[in-house]
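Re-running 2-oxoglutarate dehydrogenase E1 component to confirm reproducibility after the cluster update. Everything else is unchanged from the original entry.
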Amino acid sequence: MKKLSNACLYSANADFIEQLYEAYLSDPDSVDADWRQYFDALRADDHLRQEIPHGPVREKFARLARQRPAPATTAGSAPLSPQQSAHKQVSVLQLINAYRFRGHRQAELDPIKQYQRPNVPELEPGFHGLSEADLDTEFNTGSLVAPDSLKLRDILEQVRATYCGPIGAEYMHINETEQKRWIQKRLEGSRATPQYNREQKHRIIGRLTAAKALEEYLHNKYVGQKRFSLEGGESLIPLLDNIVQRGGRADLHEIVIGMAHRGRLNVLVNILGKMPSELFGEFEGKQPENNNGSGDVKYHLGYSSDIAVDNGALHLTLAFNPSHLEIIDPVVEGSVRARQDRRRDVERNQVLPLLIHGDAALAGQGVVMETLNLSQTRGYSTGGTIHVVINNQIGFTTSDPLDSRSTLYCTDVAKMIQAPILHVNGDDPEAVVFAAEFALDYRTEFNKDVVIDLVCYRRHGHSEADEPAATQPVMYRKIRNHTDAHRQYSDRLIREGTFSKEDIQMLEDDYIKALEENQPVSAPLISKAQREYLVNFEPFKNHRWDEPVDTSLDRDTIARLTESFTRVPEDFQLHKTVEKIIHARRQMGQDEQPFDWGYAEMLAYASLLDAGYPIRISGQDSARGTFFHRHSVIHNQENGDTYLPLQHLKAEQPSFLIINSILSEEAVLAFEYGYSSSQPNGLVMWEAQFGDFANGAQVVIDQFISSSEAKWDRYSGLVMLLPHGYDGQGPEHSSARLERYLQLCAEDNMQVCFPSTAAQMFHMLRRQVLRPYRKPLIVMSPKSLLRHKLSTSTLSDITDHGFQLVIDEIDDIDKHKVRRLLICSGKVYYDLLDARRDNDIDNIAIARIEQLYPFPKRELSELVASYPNVEDVVWVQEEPRNQGACAYLLESLNLFGSLNNNQQLLIIARPYSASPAVGSPSRHLEQQRQLVQEALLLEAQESSDDKARKSA
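Result of re-run:
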């Protein structure tokens, strides 16, 4: 800590000191520790209180100042008055602050110097009323990490070196004083200029050589093939290498990396240790041995390895990634959260998420903002992410920054979470490594996100087949004439005598030799690292979806669990409606009344927790339930406290977390997918507020949920609850777009279920976890059925049954009399059932398909065959004919041979429509009435619209 200098205690500094004292009164931590101690003592001496005037303080400083000489003035200049001197001192502090705020605008960031640095008036002394005559005057340095007082020229030299060199820092947007002081100490104390020894420089040039040599080797060996070269941004490799090695010393156990195409192959080989022969085989078109699916291009593939670090092994994972660039961000965050939870890493310091972005994608894709918005929330925090931007200063093929964003920097979006941002010149590898050290240490200290903007360029086009000069002639003329970072740094090391030219050449020769001999060229790999906490899906492979599993519960277990999840603390004041719901659930557990969907869910969750399976549920109103049915979190009406009964089933139990998510579908669903892909031994669920809200997450569904196993051999047991049903609530609150999921179904890649009773929901959720089978489960979940009297169940449905793929007619109908068999799913079943009973129809049966995919061919065939005289088999759906399950069922029923030659398949649905549903409640009811009448062969009644047309 600096000792408070007597030089500042003269009357000319009274205004400055009063400003400090006012800041101290507002927040003692906002001033330096030495000033804080002085003010503490001052208040103790004078018995000052916060609300009294500052006059006594000013008088005390005046007395002190009269005992000390006035500051020296520049030779030949007239003495300054106390007021002038005070004004100059304040101006110096403002100048220091100007560099902290805006010094980055004049930092030397652009390797190819294509943009002229702007003139920033606030960085000139004259802007603040300071002149050359003041350069040799000593001023107090305030909170600058420096001696208490310095000449103005020395202050200027320090702030320019710190903030206008190869690193441009943005951090003054951060509210927390502690974090800003930490950053200032780190940057200003070293002038943002590292002092590395020979060993450290050897590692940097070694990794830089690896980055360059691999790209040149691939460029010459596989001419014209796409690889999305790292050339121009080679400093990424020493940056990542430093984080890996320092991460090991910081007691990290895992790093999960997400990145798109640019430089991915280089990272795989030089950081994760992918064998050169594997990469070469992919260039030569060889299929990986462990992937029997469709596979993917080489620059989408992931990898994992264990790297030797100082304290043992560090597990590295590079996530598989589609071409949708930033969509991998929340997937990585979810995977990291699962790994932290598995390790019981409540401090979130053992597993690090590291995201590598492109500049245009970072600024352009909304999922970035959504992911940042998740970062500090309770259910999604991972303890801070290190973000690295490979800033090529050009988006995709031809996009100029003026066309790719509306912000000054591509990283401005990170300011929304007050992340510090270091812009660093990619041609200065030592500055890049310094930024890496800063980022990891900041994340370790504060568990907050931090951004490194690696300002570089792209040596080739978007891919190696492009000719970028056609659209960017000036930029690529500069690039063609530009000396690369490896050559610049090598020359620098040779000039300073650290290495010889022969030393540098030997590094490259040794690297190429290792490539050709198929040796690892990363840091040393560890083949027998500890695997206790790593993801293991092996027990779930090679199992079928139709393997039997017992999902029933006995009555004693039901009673015990019900008592546990309906228990409320004695002093807890419940809302009257919630109190009635909990009381009803106690009766349901005793079989005193039929149980509803809310009880079915709670009992399913309790039973899985009791069996040792953790549960994680998220959605925009999941804790209560969008339709006021779940109430897994209850609220004290007196003080707002919350209580989760499912967290208090017994002393030792797995975690139960249910989260009301941010108002996002894409990032949240991707996060939950990532979590499920790293947590095979639990139930992970995402619930849409309404089913078609999942439209906003279609990329996640297409690129990960439906196809990750086929492309990458990656598994997930994620459950998606999508409220679905035509209740007259309009186009956006009716359809979960069932047809889209069925269109994506193939190769048993996922499950699509449409449960129609509370017991079916119970068995379906338990089946998802208890089977040694992990595939995503898409559920058309109910809305109005949550309280429908006919969709309830009894305890015997739990104790005596399991999940039924197909449900036959439930009324006592003679199957020999049945001429028409209606088959449906979901809510429309109850509309049909009510109408049939009302009209005493006994020759039409109604059956339900509860699992649409994988299609229950045998079960449906047996059901149809049990009706010997059926002539018409009719698929009935609420959705328009061009939507819903219609097209899928037409193909499935015919291909799977569920019908015999004497039967015809008919379709009853709403008319073809561009919109999922009508907006008028009356039109909805009319459509529903007509649909039911047609299905049951009832005499059509004229609608009011028909009558009006006829009368007209």
